[in-house]
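Protein: Maf-like protein
Species: Dipteronia sinensis
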Amino acid sequence: MEVNSSPFKIILGSSSMPRRKILAEMGYEFTVLSADIDEKAIRKEKPEDLVIAIAEAKADAIVSKLRTIDGQLGNAEPTILIAADTAEAILNRLPIGDDIKEADPTVLITADQVVVYEGAIREKPSSKEEAWQFIKGYSGGHCATVGSVFVTNIKTGFRKGEWDRVEIYFHEIPDEVIEKLVKSCFHLMVVSVVSVFGMVSYNITTSYIPFQVEEGTVLYVAGGLIIEHPLILPYIKQVVGTMDSVMGLPKALTERLIKEAL
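Structure follows.
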């Protein structure tokens, strides 16, 4: 896809490689901004309420961070900020400060996702053993992903979040495949470090390199579920919904909320 020629920039803050891949597929060039919160401190009974609440908390944390940093945006172009999950980027200095009301529109987008299995909410597995149990439970059955996208226009105060749900049905998954999934490496997108407004950030391309995650990539995703993983793909029976939503960032919802916020 051709690079989006929109007058705004996108800044992504996420440890989620699939979300970065999705934004690249949408034609955006983007850099990275981090957001870190204690997600476990936020509890809701309904998965839809939980993912919205966590995404909103991420937005609050980033807005607070931005408002306390000295400096001015100056003549910078309108910027979209995107944050999701525990981020890798390190924020050195992003000038917004007291002149935010004078600045061009800045839209903050946060996201979160959980897996629902037999009515129970599953977040990231706490261990390899739990990841194994999660995936074993999906074998021959089904689960659902519930993901949120939350937008905040920092200049106008506009805030809106919505969620998307996808049902996933599985064939029987052999134990040896589950074992490989828990221990496997996965292909990550090529990331190059750049600096924007004095901030360490990352440009994302659609190329891939092998990257070994010591305890298994499935430990870093909700429900230990990576249906795009080459080991699990043959055992996917049916997906009722979109793959981009399963991967953490529904394209249509994201595009619509961006337009509503601007």
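Remarks: The chain has a mean pLDDT of 76.
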